[in-house]
Amino acid sequence: MCMRHLPLYSAIIAMIFAQILKVFIQRGRVKYWDWNLLFQTGGMPSSHSAMVSALAVKMLLLYGWGSPWFAVSFIFAIIVMYDAIGVRRQAGEMAVILEECIYGAATDALIKNTAATGLRHWRRKGHTPLEVVGGAILGTGIALLM
């Protein structure tokens, strides 16, 4: 395995592992397998946080604390994790409110003829801080193991 590609491999493996872990965590909660979670965002652990934390930690291990590579990846990780909690969560909450407005005020005939019918299927509301921390811990662990 090429040493300079380790940050990329760590990030991808962390993301894949986080997505697979979501299926098992959901199975423990609701007692059925939801394989659609492999391709959805949101939930525990955050695959976004896992990916960027694995990237940043691997850059730290390979290039050191004073490296510009680590600095850029660290800032990138902070932005992604902040957005996962803040911006994405707020956008998800707004989508739920919009959905309630559309489906609460509209009749079935009107709903069938609008482009908004697909909105009902999107329920994720971004990430909670715990989900982001869980992803960061997972990504850090994978980067340390690789």
UniProtKB/TrEMBL annotation:
UniProt feature coiled coil, ranges: none
InterPro entries listed in its UniProt record: DUF212 (IPR003832), PAP2/HPO_sf (IPR036938)
The entry's keywords: Membrane, Transmembrane, Transmembrane helix
The keyword Membrane is annotated on this UniProt entry: yes
Transmembrane residue ranges: 6-25, 67-85
Protein name per UniProt: Divergent PAP2 family protein
Species whose genome carries this gene: Collibacillus ludicampi
